[in-house]
């Protein structure tokens, strides 16, 4: 195969086509679903911004890649279920070709790794290990979870934050020199758990029509991100994303049955990207379309 050289200072590589993208509420997480179609071998020089970590998880097809930098040096084929990692502040010299490779790309700010490690500061300088297109089942599951979601609504941005946190934790656990352990109960503050979670509960209730970020919720609780995620799940039985989504749907029921709003108006008020997206979520969580629900409550409106 012949090799072409094409400088690519941005993260938009030749042959890469973005299908969908979700930005986290905090701005520290961007999840992009894309397809690489580059049959001919091409070379790119790809600098990665210093404050970012990039993870690419392959979920379909295959890609041949040669990747060289001071961080990594490998030549390998990546298939569905494999991953590779890029550390910010470095320039990568990459050659690749793919008839068609589907992937999910995570851009995660370094601050998210600090969130994960808030309860256990590392005893040594954090160093990452590139998976080099090796299989990683857990990261693949997280990528598939992200892939099933739409974009451009507050709950999707909260989901992006949540998945970004989980991905950062998994990268630290599997592909770094840091051992991530459970949080010691002795590090928790003495404020009662129900009081902390009640503050978070009230904030979510008061902001169902506004974007809500995971970092804001953790700050309101007075806990680190790790403690907050664990304690929220223990208190409510679901993740912050799932709880917020359900509360939005409960609010929607009141909007369309008691406040007289149309389905489209309710979707707009609750900051969904479209009435179709809103209806899909409503049906998934309640087993019935919002328009049907409204007719059942107010049959005279038919």
Structure described in brief:
The protein is α+β, with helices and mostly antiparallel strands. The chain has helices spanning 110-116, 137-147, 154-174, 193-206, 214-221, 225-236, 240-257, 263-269, 275-286, 290-297; strands spanning 4-5, 16-23, 29-47, 52-68, 73-79, 82-87, 91-109, 134-135. Strands 1, 2, 3, 4, 5, 6, 7 and 8 form an 8-stranded mixed beta sheet that branches.
Structural topology:
Layout: E1 4-5, E2 16-23, E3 29-47, E4 52-68, E5 73-79, E6 82-87, E7 91-109, H1 110-116, E8 134-135, H2 137-147, H3 154-174, H4 193-206, H5 214-221, H6 225-236, H7 240-257, H8 263-269, H9 275-286, H10 290-297
Parallel strand pairs: 1-3
Antiparallel strand pairs: 2-3, 3-7, 4-5, 4-6, 4-7, 6-8
What separation lies between the terminal Cα atoms?
A: 65 Å
Compute the number of strand runs.
8
Q: Whole-number radius of gyration?
A: 22 Å
**Are there runs of 5+ residues with pLDDT below 50, and where?**
1-10, 182-192
The whole-number mean of residue pLDDT values reads: 83
User: Largest beta sheet, briefly?
Assistant: 8 strands, mixed
Give the amount of beta strand, in percent: 25-35%
**What's the SSE pattern?**
EEEEEEEHEHHHHHHHHH
Number of helical runs? Answer: 10
The amount of helix comes to 25-40%
Shape estimate: globular
Look at the helices and sheets and give the structural class: alpha+beta
């Amino acid at each position: 195969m012949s090799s072409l050289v094409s400088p690519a200072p941005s993260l938009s590589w030749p042959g890469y086509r973005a299908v969908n993208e979700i930005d986290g509420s905090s701005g520290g997480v961007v999840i992009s679903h894309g397809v690489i179609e580059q049959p001919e071998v091409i070379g790119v020089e790809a600098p990665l911004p210093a404050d970012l970590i990039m993870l690419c998880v392959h979920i379909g097809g295959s890609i041949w890649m040669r990747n060289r930098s001071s961080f990594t040096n490998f030549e390998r084929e990546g298939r569905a279920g494999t991953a590779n990692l890029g550390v910010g502040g470095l320039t990568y010299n990459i050659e690749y070709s793919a008839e068609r490779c589907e992937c999910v790309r995570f851009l995660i700010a370094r601050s998210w790794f600090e969130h994960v490690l808030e309860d256990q500061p590392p005893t040594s300088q954090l160093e990452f290990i590139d998976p080099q297109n090796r299989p990683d089942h857990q990261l693949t599951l997280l990528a598939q979870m992200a892939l099933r979601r739409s974009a451009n609504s507050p709950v999707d941005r909260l989901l992006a934050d949540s998945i970004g946190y989980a991905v950062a934790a998994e990268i630290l656990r599997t592909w770094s020199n840091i051992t991530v352990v459970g949080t010691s109960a002795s590090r928790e503050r003495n404020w009662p758990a129900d009081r902390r979670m009640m503050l978070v509960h009230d904030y979510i209730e008061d902001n169902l029509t506004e974007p809500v970020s995971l970092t804001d919720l953790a700050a309101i609780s007075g806990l680190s991100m790790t403690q907050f995620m664990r304690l929220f799940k223990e208190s409510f039985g679901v993740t912050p994303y799932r709880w917020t989504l359900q509360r939005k749907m409960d609010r929607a029921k009141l909007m369309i049955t008691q406040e007289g709003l149309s389905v489209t108006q309710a979707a707009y008020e609750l900051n969904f990207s479209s009435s179709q997206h809103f209806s899909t979520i409503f049906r998934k969580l309640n087993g019935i379309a919002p328009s049907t629900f409204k007719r059942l409550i107010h049959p005279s409106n038919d």
